[in-house]
Design brief:
D-Maltodextrin-Binding Protein, domain 2, about 300 residues, 11 helices, five-stranded mixed beta sheet, Arc Repressor Mutant, subunit A, alpha/beta
Length: about 300
């Protein structure tokens, strides 16, 4: 028995919860994975999984064994990457998932610089608003606002996602500007449906806190569509500043209720524990962190004007 291959197979099955997906990710057949797990169970003389026709979950022994095995696999991969790093720059395919709100208008120029610095890395970028499990779907890293879906995933914050309610000057002239959150209920509202807070809206100003449930005449999973919708002058839209900043600075949109603080979210890199020392993943994340600094560039002018905090 090749113990390292068996341990790697065990870690992949534990993370994906599926023998077939583990086999696909490792580039072998399902029967090979099954055989390696059986050999490992015979070697330690204990079952590692509880199996049924639909589910695979770790046994009590498997849970304890997984923590040590995941570290061992990560350490081995890190050592291999380190040896390669001594001789060359990072190489290989990097498959990432990215939210459209950041991918459009922001990630392109960063990606251009990254690929210039690391020409031997092949980057495959999937852009969508779905919350994904990078292990299950085969991503090296996912960039998202939601917390990790499993304990086997690691999260590293890149920047804060702030939000503002916005309207066009034409809408303000025709319908007025709300001065209290409750007044939003009297206006046409368009909302992004993908915020982690869902339909719960909390506004904070000094000692005042207002909680609202906003119905929203229009809902979309595209913040860019909502920005364009707001510019037509037909309603009020809540937008992340990474999408609205340029329009707010130019006057195409104006802030609404900026004296009230909305909850913010972390935009984070989420990746499998077994990838935490992978050179190509670490290189991309470090590159992005270095480019953002203390505050993302789109928030700096809004912070200076006091529209966000």
């Amino acid at each position: 028995m090749d113990r390292l291959l068996s341990v790697e197979a065990f870690v992949r099955v534990a993370e994906t919860g599926n023998f077939a997906k583990a086999a696909q990710q490792l580039g072998v057949t399902r029967s090979v994975i099954t055989h390696r797990i059986q050999q490992l169970e015979q070697f330690i003389n204990a079952p590692l999984f509880h199996r049924s026709t639909r589910h695979v979950r770790l046994s009590e022994v498997g849970e304890t064994y997984y923590k040590e095995c995941a570290d061992m696999v990560a350490g081995f991969n890190s050592l291999t990457e380190h040896m390669r790093e001594l001789r060359a720059k990072p190489t290989g395919k990097l498959r990432i998932q990215m939210l459209p709100g950041f991918a459009i208008s922001h990630f392109g120029h960063l990606l251009a610089e990254f690929t210039r610095l690391y020409p031997d890395i092949e980057v495959d970028v999937i852009v969508n608003d779905r919350v994904v499990d990078p292990i299950e779907e085969g991503f090296d890293v996912a960039f998202q606002m939601f917390p990790p879906m499993a304990e086997t995933l690691i999260e590293r914050k890149l920047f804060t996602v702030r939000r503002l309610f916005c309207m066009s000057p034409d809408y303000a002239s025709e319908f007025g500007v709300p001065t209290h959150p409750q007044e939003l209920l009297q206006h046409k509202i368009a909302l992004y449906e993908g915020y982690p807070s869902r339909n719960r809206w909390v506004f904070n100003r000094e000692d005042e806190q207002v909680e609202l449930s906003l119905p929203g005449q229009v809902r979309s999973n595209s913040v860019h569509l909502l920005r364009d919708y707001a510019q037509t002058g037909v309603g009020i839209v809540c937008l992340p500043t990474l999408v609205a900043s340029e329009d707010l600075q130019s006057g195409r949109l104006i802030p609404v209720l900026s004296e009230y603080l909305l909850s913010s979210f972390n935009f984070s890199a989420v990746y499998p524990a077994t990838q935490r020392r992978a050179l190509k993943v670490r290189t991309l994340i470090d590159f992005l962190v270095d480019n953002f600094g203390a505050e993302p560039y789109w928030d700096v002018p809004l912070l200076e004007r006091g529209w966000i905090r």
